[in-house]
Design goal:
The chain has 158 residues and is mainly alpha-helical. The protein has one domain. Helix content is 66%, strand content 0%. It is built from 5 helices and no strands. Helix 3 packs antiparallel against helix 4. The radius of gyration is 16 Å and the shape is globular.
Length: 158
């Protein structure tokens, strides 16, 4: 299972959060460096690795759709948000954009983040409801979708 977890990491966030930004940066010839971006990149990477570990250890699975966790993961960063892995990838992407001071990478980061929201709302949450039933419903009621609950802003889904 460890090999599948490593393959999933390389195939999913490895491509989206590291390979594509690297290739997009190579397209832009102007190369500036802003150290604040490197800080975001490092923080996002550490958070991402923490989430991958929790999927592997607590969830008994990987972050890949072809080998998802068998157990609902509610430990670690998942105690504070239902989607810490997506937040971590967004931080990595924003880190790249800031580090290279790239509008192209910022646009990519925003597009990927919007795609994450669509995937979560229309794909993952319905699947989690079917797969984990009442445990998912309790978790969903207790933990916001993102870091800040939108319930105060009349978002019934958090």
């Amino acid at each position: 299972m460890l090999a599948r977890a490593v393959l999933a990491f390389v195939a999913c966030p490895g491509i989206v959060a590291y390979a594509v930004p690297f290739l997009l940066h190579r397209i832009e010839s102007d190369s500036h460096r802003n150290r604040a971006g490197l800080i975001l990149l490092c923080i996002g990477t550490l958070l991402l690795l923490w989430c991958v570990r929790d999927f592997y250890v607590a969830g008994r699975g990987t972050l890949a759709p072809w080998a998802p966790p068998r157990r609902l993961v509610t430990v670690g960063l998942y105690r504070y948000t239902r989607n810490p892995m997506y937040i971590a990838v967004a931080l990595v992407l924003l880190g790249w954009a800031l580090w290279f001071e790239s509008w192209m990478l910022l646009t990519y980061a925003l597009a990927v983040t919007a795609a994450f929201r669509v995937r979560v709302v229309f794909g993952e949450e319905p699947w989690l409801a079917r797969t984990h039933g009442e445990a998912w419903q309790r978790y969903k009621a207790r933990v916001p979708r993102w870091l800040v609950s939108h319930r105060a802003a009349r978002d019934p889904e958090g």
